[in-house]
Amino acid sequence: KQPRADGLKAYPIVGILPHFVRNQHRLLEWSAGVVARCPTHTMSFNFKGFGLIAGAITGNPANVEHIVKTNFQNYSKGEYVVSVMEDFLGHGIFNSDGDQWLWQRKAASYEFNKRSLRNFVVDTVRWRAKRLLDLEPERRMREALATIHGYADRIVRERRERGAAGLARKDDFLSRFAATGEHSDESLRDVVTNFVLAGRDTTSSALTWFFWLVSGQPDVEDRIAREIRAVRASSGSTDAAAFSFDELREMHYLHAAITEAMRLYPPVAMDSHCCQNDDVLPDGTFVGKGWQVTYSAYAMARLEELWGADCEEFRPERWLDEDGVFRPESPFKYPVFHGGPRMCLGKEMAYIQMKSIAACVFERFSFRFVGGEGRPGLVFSVTLRMEGGLPMRVKKRRDSVC
Ligand code: HEM
After folding, report:
1. Atom of ligand 1 nearest to the CA of 94
2. Distance from C-alpha of 166 to C-alpha of 72, rounded to nearest angstrom
3. Residues near ligand 1 (Cβ within 6 A)
4. Which of 58, 301, 338, 348 could disulfide-link to 63, CB 3.0 to 4.6 Å?
5. For this protein, what is any one GO molecular function term (predicted)?
C-alpha cells in the first residue's frame, strides 16, 4: 500500500508471511492445527519487533464471548483491518466502528425487524425457485447457486435503475440510510457493497459446501428428501415450486444439515478484532493494546473438546434432540453468525433462502460430486469458497412426485 493522503498509516498487509498470502488456505489450516494443539486453544504471537503485527488466534468459546460481547468496547475492527479492507468495503457496516457503525446498525436493524422483509424474502425466493425449475435440466445446478443473490441484487438493481434521486421513496431500504443524514454517494455505495457481500457471498459459500457434503452422504440426502415429502404431505400445499415460511420452519433435519455444513465450512472462517487496551482473555492469554485478536470458527469446528471425537465428521444429527427437533448451540461455541452487538443481522433471512433452495432442489433431484476424490480445495478470502466450483451430476429422484 502507498502512504495515504488522509494521514492513516499504511500497513504491510501481509508482511509476515508472503507465502501465506498466495496460499491463504494454508494459513487457515495451519492456524486450526496450532489452535487445536494449544492447551487453552489460543495461540498468541508478537512480530512487532520486526515492524509487523502482534496478535492472538483463539478457538476458545469463553474468549470469543469476551471479545464479541462482554468486553465488546475493547475490541473494534480497528485501524488495521479498516485500512486493509477500505478499497473494497469503504466504510460500510462491516468496515466501520463507533458512530459510523452505529447509525448503519440502527438503520439496518429497523429494516430487518420488519415483517415485510420476511415476506419479501419468501416471495423473492419463490420467484427465483420457479425460474430455476423452469430451466433446462443441465443448467439447473449452476443456476441454483446463482439464485441466492436475492435481496442484495435487488438493492443494486434498483439503485442503478432509479439513481440517487429515486432513493427518497419511503419504503425503500436505502432511503432509511439516506434519512440518517449520511447520504453521500460514497456512503450509499458502501451500504450496497457491504450488503451484497453480506447477503450473497455468505449464503452461496454455505450452500456450495452443503451440497458437496450432502452428495458424499446419500443417507443424509434421502433423509432430507423424506422430510420434504412429509412436510408437503402434512401441509397439503400445491405450490409446486416453493415452500411457505411455516413449511420451511418444519424442516428440522434440513436446518440441522445446513447448520452442520456451516460448522465445518463457516462462510466467515476467521474474524479479527483490534484490542484497544491491554487485556487478559478468560483463558489467561495476555493481549496487548493494538494486537489483532482473531477467533477461528474453522478451527473451533475441529476441536474434540467442543464437538466430540467425531468433530471432523458431517453429522447433522448432532443438532437434533431425541424428538428430531433442532437444538441451537451457543453463538460463542458456534460463532458462524458472530455474536454480541455485531451479530449477523441476516441470519434468519439466510436460512430462509438456503432452506428454500435446498428443499426445492432436493425434492426433485439427487446429486453426485464429479470433481474427483478427496476434499475440493479451499479458497480462503473474506468468505470461504471452493476451488474450481462444484461440478455435479444431477439425476431426477425416482421418488420425486414433481
Ligand atoms: C450463511 C449466511 C451468513 C453467514 C454465515 C453470516 C455471517 C456473518 C458474520 C460472521 C458476521 C460478522 C462479521 C464481522 O463483523 O466481521 C455477519 C455480520 C453481518 N451480516 Fe451476516 N451472515 C450471513 C448472511 C447474511 C445475510 C443474508 C445478510 C443480509 C443481507 C447478512 C447481514 C449481515 C450484516 C448487516 C452484518 C453486520 C453486522 C454488524 O457489523 O453490526 N448476513 N454475518
Report:
1. 40
2. 37
3. 93-94, 105, 108, 151-152, 195, 198-199, 202-203, 206, 262, 267-268, 271, 336-338, 342, 344-346, 349-350
4. 58
5. iron ion binding
CATH code of domain 18-396: 1.10.630.10
Ligand 1 centre and the CA of 49: distance in Å?
35
Region 61-74: what's the mean pLDDT? 98
Q: Which atom from ligand 1 is nearest to the alpha carbon of 342?
A: 41
Q: In 3-state terms, what secondary structure has residue 137?
A: helix
Question: What percentage of the chain has pLDDT greater than the value 70?
Answer: 76
Could you give the CA distance from residue 253 to residue 325 in angstroms, rounded to a whole number? 8
* Backbone φ and ψ of 195, nearest 5°: -75, -30
pLDDT score, position 153: 52
**pTM for this prediction:** 0.86
- Rounded CA separation 67/285 (Å): 12
List, for residues 169-216, the tens digit of each pLDDT value.
434 555 555 555 556 677 777 887 888 788 888 999 999 999 999 999
Q: Whose CA is nearest to atom 12 of ligand 1?
A: 338
Distance of CA 247 to the CA centre of its chain: 23
- How far is Cα 36 from Cα 200, in angstroms, rounded to an integer? 31
Question: What share of the chain in percent tops pLDDT 90?
Answer: 49
Picking from 261, 264, 112, the residue whose alpha carbon sits closest to that of residue 176 is 112
Q: Where along the chain do its domains lie?
A: 18-396
Q: Are strands 279-280 and 286-287 parallel, antiparallel or unpaired?
A: antiparallel
- 38 labelled binding-site residue: no
Instruction: In whole angstroms, give the CA distance from residue 30 to residue 33.
Output: 5
